[in-house]
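Is this the right way to post structure tokens for a design question? Let me know if I should format differently. Anyway, here goes:
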């Protein structure tokens, strides 16, 4: 993990937030390359879920919503983690994590009383800071961030930062139904920031208090929900592997029925085998039944149902929800793509290479003149100006060409286009593939089309 964190900082992917003030725990900022990577991941999600389908539309709802939304969704009452405080160090811990890190007990879903009992009785559970065994009782701690709207900080103005994007979709179900031409089965997708006052954030951008989600609620007729659930698990799996993630590092985890959330009939997680944390959730794919729409109907007094125009059937749709975190997914793509390679027969005998799929790579191609001198550099600049605007292109004329290649390998640029002395004679350039390091000679007039094809099919990744 230290290696990935320092790599991310050194190459401008992710920085500690407010670093000049000593940083703030669990907040991170994305640098020039990180912002491109995360944006590409979100765009690929949107492209695949919204643009490539004719049964999904998007929304972008507010972060601060009516407080009743969170009562209806169950967040006010049950969006809690169990908190314990160590009396010896004064530190606070998530009770389930404290138990699970010291024992083999699966603590998820235990009540406050049960956790308190385990912590009191099991001698292996100690304060990680000072080894103390004097803990307060476990008690529920609500993860929603509170704020106030307007100048008066009274209970009547209490509001929350959304802890998930999903509810902004449910509250717009009727709007979307009334104003667009969707018919069940259909989905509504949303991306955006969510906030959770996590007791123990950690593992870099894996768990933070402010993060971005990519969620979609897919509304189906009850009875077809189980089949649609399978479809979406497969769709989401294919999205990760289609973008080059190694299937060996992915698995599907089935939540045992007794541990399901209050709204869920079945939940499956897509997990990634992080080297520092083991198998961890990237995304949950849940069958939320008609829970959310029914609750919002009850709390708002509005009818949130669907009438099938063909059969006249009236029903509250069931919902299949794939819910992923953009930051966590970005971390998984970085970890999955990071390689330190020994090279044979080269002067430089090793390289760091980020084997990102071209579609999500922050920079799609770099253009190099072999030399800074005219007219080679002018020719290279012309090509650069011609290509930029289609996607992110980088121009670099400084240093030895080998060093320039290495620099691009390290940030995951899939293709380097080099203009050399021969170009002046034959109007051809070389395109170097990051993964195979093979170079091919291509007429300048064909470079744009060739890159376009390589990027969209991800041929570089296909050869991995
Ligand atoms: P976890 O069990 O890891 O806390 P969760 O099951 O509470 O996650 P969901 O509510 O299902 O998470 O949210 C969907 C997705 O949002 C998660 O799969 C994850 O990718 C992302 N996510 C949730 N909490 C965080 C967080 N604190 N930081 C970063 N991403 C998060």
């Amino acid at each position: 993990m230290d290696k990935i964190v320092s790599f991310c900082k050194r190459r401008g992917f992710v920085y500690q937030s407010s670093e000049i003030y000593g940083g703030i725990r669990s907040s991170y900022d994305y640098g020039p390359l990180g912002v491109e990577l995360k944006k590409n991941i979100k765009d690929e999600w949107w492209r695949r879920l919204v643009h490539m389908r004719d049964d999904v539309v998007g929304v972008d709802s507010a972060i601060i919503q009516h407080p009743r939304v969170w009562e209806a969704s169950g967040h006010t009452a049950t969006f809690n983690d169990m908190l314990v405080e160590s009396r010896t160090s004064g530190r606070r811990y998530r009770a389930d994590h404290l138990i699970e890190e010291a024992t083999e007990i699966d603590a998820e879903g235990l009540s406050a009383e049960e956790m308190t009992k385990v912590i009191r009785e099991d001698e292996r559970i100690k304060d990680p800071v000072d080894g103390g065994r004097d803990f307060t009782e476990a008690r529920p701690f609500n993860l929603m961030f509170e704020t106030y709207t307007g100048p008066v900080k009274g209970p009547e103005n209490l509001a929350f930062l959304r802890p998930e994007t999903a509810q902004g979709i449910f509250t717009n179900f009727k709007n979307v139904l009334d104003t667009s031409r969707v018919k069940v089965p259909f989905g509504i997708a949303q991306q955006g920031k969510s906030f959770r006052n996590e007791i123990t954030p950690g593992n870099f951008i894996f768990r933070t208090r402010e993060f971005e989600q990519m969620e979609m609620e897919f509304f189906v007729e009850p009875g077809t929900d189980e089949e649609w659930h399978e479809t979406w698990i497969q769709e989401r799996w294919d999205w990760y592997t289609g973008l080059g993630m190694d299937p060996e590092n992915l698995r599907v985890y089935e939540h045992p029925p007794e541990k399901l959330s209050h709204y869920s009939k079945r939940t499956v997680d897509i997990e990634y085998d992080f080297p520092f944390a083991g198998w961890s959730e990237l995304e949950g794919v849940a069958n939320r039944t008609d829970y959310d729409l029914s609750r919002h109907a009850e709390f708002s007094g509005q009818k949130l149902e669907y009438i099938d125009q063909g059969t006249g059937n009236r029903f509250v749709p069931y919902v299949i929800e794939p819910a992923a975190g953009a930051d966590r997914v970005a971390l998984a793509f970085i970890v999955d793509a990071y390689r330190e390679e020994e090279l044979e027969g080269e002067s430089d005998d090793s390289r760091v290479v980020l084997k990102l799929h071209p579609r999500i790579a922050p920079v799609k191609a770099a253009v190099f003149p072999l030399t800074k001198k005219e007219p080679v550099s002018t020719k290279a600049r012309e090509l650069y100006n011609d290509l930029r605007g289609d996607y992110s292109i980088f121009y670099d004329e400084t240093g030895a060409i080998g060093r320039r290649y290495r620099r691009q390998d390290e940030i995951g640029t899939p293709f380097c286009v080099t203009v050399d002395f021969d170009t002046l004679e034959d109007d051809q350039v070389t395109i170097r593939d990051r993964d195979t390091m093979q170079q091919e000679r291509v007429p300048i007039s064909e470079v744009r089309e060739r890159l376009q094809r390589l990027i969209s099919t991800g041929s570089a990744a296909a050869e991995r």
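Format looks fine. Someone answered above. Worth noting: The radius of gyration is 26 Å. Confidence is low (pLDDT under 50) at residues 460-464.
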